[in-house]
Amino acid sequence: MTDSFLWAEKYRPKTFEEFVGQTHILDGVRQLVEQGNLPHVMFAGPAGVGKSTLAIVVARTLFGDRWRQNVLELNASDERGIDVVRTKVKNFARTKAFEVPFKIIFLDECDALTRDAQQALRRTMENFSNSCRFVLSCNFPSKIIDPIQSRCVNYRFKSLTKEDIFALVDRIAKGEGLKLDADAKESLFACCEGDCRRVVNLLQAASTSGKTIDKDKVESLAGLATPQELPEMLSLALKGDLLTARKHLIGMLGAGLSGQDLIKLIQKGVWELDIDDKQKLQLVDRCGECEFRLVEGSDSVIQLEALLAQFGLLRA
Ligand SMILES: Nc1ncnc2c1ncn2[C@@H]1O[C@H](COP(=O)(O)OP(=O)(O)OP(=O)(O)O)[C@@H](O)[C@H]1O
Ligand SMILES: [Mg+2]
């Protein structure tokens, strides 16, 4: 194992055996690879669960040392337009495979491709399927047009279970000489929501201040500990004092919490408020709407302020 600075790279699985979880996918993909063949495939699922990693493991296993010359790796969220498909993908697809039966085009985050680009991709997949196989990866398969989905074998990745995350934590703890008790591991699992990348990054961040890692350290790094300002902000918003509530909001965002971290905390906070159940339901519903908009890329300050305004409107 190379001594990579980023643990997410250092501990990135290089073989099928090194993965934790996803056995429902690994078995099937391994069989395809062992037969030396590969249809177009789509790896869909949440962040940090091994989609990109598996794509590279597939290429390595199929092509050995020659994998780099025969794989084109593109991140569609950097290059979303039709020109990418027209130029880079087609140019690569057109040239001959180098001492292997076919080449692989790995299009990461392809749910970021525009619809036009997806249409162009669909045609490219058809035209070059003899010489090229596509491995597509995405978080939201519903954003991929049907004709592409139907050209691929679809694999749905799952968030990792507690056992899987614990296995990963144990492996890294052993590799790095870290000491974690059961509580620390539980809180790592609670913070990461089944996302391995987040676990590995949290562990690395926690390790900078010593090899012993406890629950408090994990929670404060993950921003999971509820900031003291949060209940105050919610009660001000309920009273209709949006101006002061907003100051707390900006303060917490400035302290490094992301919009999505905050929406989760606000949603939890709603259940603690001294309002009737129907009002709680209304607010939880608004939280869901706000979260969706944030995931879709809306401005966090505008969306969270709008949400706080809903708190004030309850009493109006
Ligand atoms: N199943 C797994 N087993 C072991 N480690 C994993 C697994 N999944 C992810 N990891 C770790 O998390 C890191 C990120 O994984 P990867 O890049 O494959 O995520 P992804 O599913 O492609 O996420 P995204 O949707 O954000 O691109 C890897 O470098 C590796 O360290
Ligand atoms: Mg990825």
Number of helices: 15
Unreliable residue stretches: none
Rg over CA atoms, rounded to whole Å, is: 23 Å
> Could you give a short account of the major beta sheet?
5 strands, parallel
Count the strands? 7
Strand order of the largest sheet: 2-3-4-1-5
The CATH homologous superfamily name of the largest domain equals P-loop containing nucleotide triphosphate hydrolases
Return the average pLDDT rounded to an integer.
90
Cofactors, ions, other ligands: adenosine-5'-triphosphate, magnesium ion
CATH class type of the largest domain: Alpha Beta
Which H/E pattern describes the elements?
Answer: HHEHEHEHEHEHEHHEHHHHHH
- What fraction, in percent, of the residue positions are helical? 55-70%
Which CATH architecture of the largest domain? 3-Layer(aba) Sandwich
Description:
With about 325 residues, the protein is of the alpha/beta class. It folds into 3 domains: about 20-155, Rossmann fold (3-Layer(aba) Sandwich), CATH 3.40.50; about 160-210; about 230-315, Zinc Finger, Delta Prime, domain 3, CATH 1.20.272. It contains 15 helices and 7 strands. The chain has helices at about 5-10, 25-35, 50-65, 80-95, 115-125, 145-150, 160-175, 180-190, 195-205, 215-220, 230-240, 240-255, 260-270, 275-295, 300-315, and strands at about 40-45, 70-75, 105-110, 130-140, 155, 180, 210-215. The chain has a 5-stranded parallel sheet, with helices on both faces. α5 (about 115-125) links the parallel β3 and β4 (about 130-140). α2 packs parallel to α3 (about 50-65). The longest helix is centred in the C-terminal third of the chain and has 19 residues, at about 275-295. The radius of gyration is 23 Å and the shape is globular. The termini are far apart. The model has no long low-confidence stretch (mean pLDDT about 90). The structure holds adenosine-5'-triphosphate and magnesium ion. Magnesium ion binds near residues 51, 52, 108 and 137.
